[in-house]
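Q: How would the structure tokens look for this protein?
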Amino acid sequence: MRVISGSRKGTPLKSLPGTSTRPTSDKVKESVFNKIGPYYDGGTVVELFGGSGSIAIEALSRGMEQAYVFEKNPKACAVIKANSEKCRMENQLHIERKDARQAAVMLKQNKITVDLLFVDPPYAAVEYYELVNELAEQGLLGEEATIVCEHEKQTLLPEQYGEFYQINSSVYGNTAITIYEKRG
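A: Here is the predicted structure in token form.
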């Protein structure tokens, strides 16, 4: 696993050994960023279920200004920290050692507007995709925000979350990526 493009292109990243996390493959990550970006001029990325933090790091490498990664597993948080240090992103990448269900409260308290939201819970925990509704209802998603949900290909996600409509859905083996944006 590595940073695919941008200022930290080619930097190898660590992931937590074992099966407690499921890192997004480089192939899927590259495809997602080719569809949604591929580069940014500032903005804030929020990665729920951070694992290794590779999505947030990729977004920062491609020009996002700040990243907030929610991960409750302390060992995974240590991996995220090591990856952010290796990429010299410690001042941009904020690790929130919290359950993803606490994201809306923390983001609202700190007046953070999300420009890119990446949601990748354990595949069996489909109820976590409802967090997207919570963030949308609380006005935490920017006007031009993009929502990316990674899920098992058999899991069907809704056509819309609030004002955000499904614009693309792609399958990579057993993994599916569904992307949402506001219609304009």
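The first strand starts at residue 44 and ends at 48.

The two ends are 35 Å apart (CA to CA).

Upvote if useful.
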